[in-house]
Design a protein that fits this description.
This protein has 197 residues and is an alpha/beta fold. The protein has seven helices and twelve strands.
Length: 197
């Protein structure tokens, strides 16, 4: 059965948090992983502007994916990106709803704060970018690892760790050979620990 992966974009998301996992997973698809990957937004929009000014045209709106990837961005500034998403509450509510409907949810970087606001990190080990360590520790046990896998909720540390997260997902769900092939193709050297509870 094909796994439907959606990467959720919002104004001020960090480019690499979203594009890194997207590229890894799409490369995995080309090397035998039975999945699809697309970029989505909560509401219909022609484009989304990321934290460094990149404009992205999403593939569509949030559906009912098997896996939802939530990037970070903007948390340390206290405005825009994740900070605004948490303040408004619509994105955390949508993430919680998808999880309640059976989707696995993975965050990259400060996207973990959206998962925390959604109530998905209560009682779960998690990680995030170092600028949000104290904030995350207020809601759950922070683990010092590159990737934390708690089954249907996964978190990755800062920015480039989203690549490690996606490679771990390929390895976990489709085998080490697929993950190794994708990492070699991308000339990416995996690093850091994966904490699997």
């Amino acid at each position: 059965m094909t796994t439907d992966v959606e990467v959720l974009l919002f104004e001020g998301f960090d480019e690499l948090d979203a594009v890194g996992p997207y590229e890894v997973l799409d490369n995995g698809r080309r090397h035998g992983a039975d999945l699809t990957v697309s970029t989505v937004t909560l509401a219909p929009t022609e484009s989304v502007t990321a934290s460094h000014g990149l404009t992205v045209v999403p593939d569509g709106t949030l559906g009912q994916p098997d896996l939802l990837v939530v990037p970070g961005g903007g948390w340390s500034a206290g405005e825009g990106g994740v900070a605004t998403a948490v303040e408004k509450g619509e994105i955390p509510a949508a993430v919680a709803e998808r999880h309640d409907d059976g989707a696995a949810v993975a965050s990259v970087c400060t996207g973990a704060m959206i998962l925390a606001e959604a109530g998905l990190l209560d009682g779960r080990p998690a990680t995030t970018h170092h600028v949000a360590h104290e904030d995350l520790a207020e809601v759950t046990e922070r683990i010092d690892a590159r990737v934390v896998d708690d089954g249907e909720v996964l978190t990755a540390a800062g920015v480039t760790s989203g690549i490690d997260l996606a490679l771990w997902l390929l390895e976990r769900d489709y085998g080490e050979s697929v993950a190794r092939t994708v990492a070699r193709e991308m000339e990416y050297e995996r690093r850091g620990d994966v904490y699997a509870d």
